[in-house]
Specification:
This protein is an alpha/beta fold and 381 residues long. It is built from eight helices and 15 strands. α2 crosses α7 and α5 packs across α7.
Length: 381
């Protein structure tokens, strides 16, 4: 992995008052009963320990930090099968290890003359032991840190708007109006909960190109983006909610049709919007995207379960995926919620109901808040 240059990091992070911290050396050792890795940091070192599943991975995140060190060679038959590092944001350095099995992590930070030594020891364990340490020396979990230091940032994206009306129901209901009304109801429900900041891609009848919607989420440092829709399809009897995540190959023909329809919204945009943002081609995009997609999947699964418990009508197989452009921010977990279908008369009536909107908004807000307390989402930012 190429070393990352100091000049590559804008001085935006409050923890790096004068200059970024620099990882100057990384050493690893495979032992009979453990895997150990040490990082020498020139400057302040406050690593956040992150645990991810499917596959099992352990990561260390450092705000306001760069790397000027090569990764060590490792025995890939050991507990750690792969190790990578690099920037996962303009001011965040990550070192991530893929594990052959669950492990028990132990993290220590020792101050040195120039900065600190960060030592992580991994010992083989089981699913139960694959958890954030609770000892006083361990850093606070990212989820807890997010609750105390930084609000959870949720971006709500009411689809369509302005010249782009979206779908139209048989009674003339315009999708852009339904999406905005529900987005505002969901914003109110979320803002009533503690330590949540809501950012809207639009809060009025404005057209926003698809790439710009994803860019808004990235600029906001979003922990989660929820894109809101109420499409019209050729199956008039189909009704109920669906939760979509991003995939290059659609899970079914209906998902492919909907993605094609939504992706065509940029026909209203000028040619300057018809391209991916350059930062999408980052050196670590594949690694970051895989983690982001895993987080999106976890939330989608939970949301479907919560909607079912809340007796919100769902279509058959309500967890689906397709290549929705609006979900393509590589570092922001994102889902697209089809609240219902304007092509169905019963759904069209429900989608316009203030009572129904508030009920759905309450369930969705609680689902977001519950998932936010788990390290898997809180650790993303």
């Amino acid at each position: 992995m190429l070393a990352l240059l100091v000049s590559a990091l804008p001085m935006r992070n409050a923890h790096a008052a004068d200059r970024p911290s620099i990882v100057t050396a990384i050493a690893a050792a495979t032992k009979a009963d453990a895997f150990e890795i040490d990082l020498e940091v020139d400057g302040r070192a406050e690593p956040k320990l992150i645990l991810l599943r499917n596959p099992y991975r352990v990561a260390l995140d450092f705000d306001g930090t760069l790397a000027a060190a090569k990764l060590p060679e490792i025995d890939k038959s050991s507990l750690v099968t792969d190790i990578r590092h690099g920037l996962v944001g303009t001011d965040r350095y990550r070192l991530i290890m893929t594990l052959a099995q669950p492990a028990r992590p132990k993290l220590d930070v020792t101050k040195s003359e120039k900065g600190a030594r960060v030592s992580l020891r991994l010992t083989p364990g089981d699913e139960k032991s694959f958890a954030l340490p609770s000892s006083p020396k361990a850093p606070e979990s990212p989820a807890a840190a997010g609750r105390s230091d930084r609000p959870l940032v949720i971006v709500l994206d009411p689809g369509h708007g302005g010249i782009d009306r979206g779908a139209t129901g048989e009674k003339g209901t315009e999708e852009k109006a339904v999406n905005l009304a529900f987005g505002l109801a969901l914003r109110s429900a979320l803002e009533a909960l503690p330590n949540i900041k809501v950012v809207m891609t639009r809060d009025d009848d404005t057209f926003i190109p698809l790439n710009e919607r994803a860019a808004i989420a990235r600029r906001a440092g979003a922990n989660l983006m929820v894109s809101l829709h109420a499409d019209s399809i050729r199956y008039k009897d189909l009704r109920g909610a669906t939760v979509y995540t991003l995939s290059e190959k659609a899970s079914d023909s209906l998902s492919r049709e909907l993605a094609d329809t939504e992706n065509s919204a940029d026909r209203f945009a000028g040619s300057e919007w018809d391209q991916d943002a350059p930062e999408i081609h980052d050196i670590l995009v594949d690694l970051v995207r895989r983690e982001t997609e895993a987080l999106s999947e976890h939330f989608a699964i939970q949301l479907v379960a919560d909607l079912g418990k809340g007796e919100i009508r769902l279509i058959n197989n309500p967890r689906r995926s397709a290549g929705f452009r609006v979900l393509r921010a590589p570092d922001v977990p994102s889902i697209l919620l089809e609240m219902g279908y304007l092509s169905n008369p019963e759904d069209e009536e429900a989608l316009q109901s203030d009572v129904w909107q508030k009920r759905l908004a309450g369930i969705l807000a609680q689902s977001i808040a519950e998932f936010a307390t788990r390290p898997i989402l809180g650790s993303q930012r």
